[in-house]
Amino acid sequence: MGVEVFFEDILRAREALHNVSHVTPVKTNAELDALISATIFLKCETAQRTGSFKFRGAYYAASQVDAKGLGRTVATISSGNHGQGLALAASLLNLSAYVIIPKPYVPRKQLAIAQHGAHVIVV
Prior knowledge:
Largest sheet: 3 strands, parallel
Oligomer: single chain
Distance between the termini: 28 Å
Radius of gyration: 17 Å
CATH class: Alpha Beta
Number of strands: 5
Structural class: alpha/beta
């Protein structure tokens, strides 16, 4: 079951992320272009906070929880990028965050999640 997204929703998310997320560059690469005879555009999301586009979605979702007065705690199940994004978002919004990390996991990702202040539960 999908959720319908309207242009106004995108504008609201853009406003919520203004001055919070980084505007990441779009680049091209002549070698890739030549390889397939087309122009390839690369969105450099490694330049985003936490190194992934997932920070934006996590921040917007967490900001909506806070704005609607639904509680002061957010949670997710993630072994990496989304967990880091939600942990940072919660920290910025002064929310509690719980990130459930399934085994096997990458220890440095678990550490990054914890360093952003989330409660980490390994299962």
